[in-house]
């Protein structure tokens, strides 16, 4: 399932990020804020378990989250979405997957992976701002499945239809959450209209 999260605040903030003249500080801050807003939708159906707590007034039968949450940023641009989501979900553990894209073949290569222990029982949210060819997302999903993950969600800021289709074909069990579905990929693998190289814009590199 692909879920394009529609909210005026997300649209406005993404527009600021798309502008070529937006600098590193504002780009990073808007990404942080959008990631937090997206987290609300991504976690909407999380299971709860009944608990009894004691308020200052009386015992109270209520609920809390039933499963751990693990955030998996794909390095390096995925790091830009971690703070915003962790602000909303401070109990989330953070795994890391390091992939780089071969500029010629556009294929992903793994250079780093590190996971918390409880990935089998957790809701796993893979984050990467740009879903272009889908190669990195598919590789990251393969990797967390190999670790035993069963409940996997993918969160991207902007996607190309080509990337969405590739992920849906490779992993139809993984729900995809987007802030925007753009038009197409160009010959260099950039999303059009997109927002350029997201990693470079987050970290101020070129
Ligand atoms: N990665 C980016 O940072 N931007 C794109 O448009 C595609 C992949």
TrEMBL record:
<feature type="binding site">
    <location>
        <position position="76"/>
    </location>
    <ligand>
        <name>5-phospho-alpha-D-ribose 1-diphosphate</name>
    </ligand>
</feature>
<dbReference type="InterPro" id="IPR029057">
    <property type="entry name" value="PRTase-like"/>
</dbReference>
<feature type="binding site">
    <location>
        <begin position="196"/>
        <end position="198"/>
    </location>
    <ligand>
        <name>uracil</name>
    </ligand>
</feature>
<dbReference type="InterPro" id="IPR000836">
    <property type="entry name" value="PRTase_dom"/>
</dbReference>
<keyword id="KW-0460">Magnesium</keyword>
<keyword id="KW-0547">Nucleotide-binding</keyword>
<feature type="binding site">
    <location>
        <position position="197"/>
    </location>
    <ligand>
        <name>5-phospho-alpha-D-ribose 1-diphosphate</name>
    </ligand>
</feature>
<dbReference type="Pfam" id="PF14681">
    <property type="entry name" value="UPRTase"/>
</dbReference>
<keyword id="KW-0342">GTP-binding</keyword>
<dbReference type="InterPro" id="IPR050054">
    <property type="entry name" value="UPRTase/APRTase"/>
</dbReference>
<comment type="pathway">
    <text>Pyrimidine metabolism; UMP biosynthesis via salvage pathway; UMP from uracil: step 1/1.</text>
</comment>
<protein>
    <recommendedName>
        <fullName>Uracil phosphoribosyltransferase</fullName>
        <ecNumber>2.4.2.9</ecNumber>
    </recommendedName>
</protein>
<comment type="similarity">
    <text>Belongs to the UPRTase family.</text>
</comment>
<feature type="binding site">
    <location>
        <position position="101"/>
    </location>
    <ligand>
        <name>5-phospho-alpha-D-ribose 1-diphosphate</name>
    </ligand>
</feature>
<keyword id="KW-0808">Transferase</keyword>
<feature type="binding site">
    <location>
        <position position="191"/>
    </location>
    <ligand>
        <name>uracil</name>
    </ligand>
</feature>
<comment type="function">
    <text>Catalyzes the conversion of uracil and 5-phospho-alpha-D-ribose 1-diphosphate (PRPP) to UMP and diphosphate.</text>
</comment>
<feature type="binding site">
    <location>
        <begin position="128"/>
        <end position="136"/>
    </location>
    <ligand>
        <name>5-phospho-alpha-D-ribose 1-diphosphate</name>
    </ligand>
</feature>
<feature type="domain" description="Phosphoribosyltransferase">
    <location>
        <begin position="4"/>
        <end position="205"/>
    </location>
</feature>
<keyword id="KW-0021">Allosteric enzyme</keyword>
<dbReference type="InterPro" id="IPR005765">
    <property type="entry name" value="UPRT"/>
</dbReference>
<keyword id="KW-0328">Glycosyltransferase</keyword>
<dbReference type="InterPro" id="IPR034332">
    <property type="entry name" value="Upp_B"/>
</dbReference>
<dbReference type="GO" id="GO:0004845">
    <property type="term" value="F:uracil phosphoribosyltransferase activity"/>
</dbReference>
């Amino acid at each position: 399932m692909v879920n394009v999260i529609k909210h005026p605040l997300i649209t406005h903030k993404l527009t600021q990020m798309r502008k070529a003249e937006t600098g590193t500080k504002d780009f990073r801050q808007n990404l942080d804020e959008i990631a937090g807003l997206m987290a609300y939708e991504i976690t909407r159906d999380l299971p709860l378990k009944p608990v009894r707590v004691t308020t200052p007034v009386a015992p109270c039968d209520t609920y809390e989250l039933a499963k751990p949450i693990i955030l998996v940023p794909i390095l390096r641009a995925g790091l830009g979405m971690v703070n915003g989501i962790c602000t909303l979900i401070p109990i989330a553990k953070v795994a890391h997957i390091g992939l780089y894209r071969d500029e010629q073949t556009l294929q992903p290569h793994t250079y780093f992976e590190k996971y918390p222990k409880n990935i089998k029982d957790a809701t796993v949210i893979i984050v990467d701002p740009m879903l272009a060819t889908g190669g990195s997302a598919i590789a990251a999903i393969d990797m967390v499945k190999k670790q035993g993950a069963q409940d996997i969600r993918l969160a991207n800021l902007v996607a190309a239809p080509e990337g969405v289709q590739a992920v849906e074909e490779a992993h139809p069990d993984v729900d995809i959450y987007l802030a925007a579905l753009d038009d197409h990929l160009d010959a260099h693998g950039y999303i059009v209209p997109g927002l350029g190289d997201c990693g470079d814009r987050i970290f101020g590199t070129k």
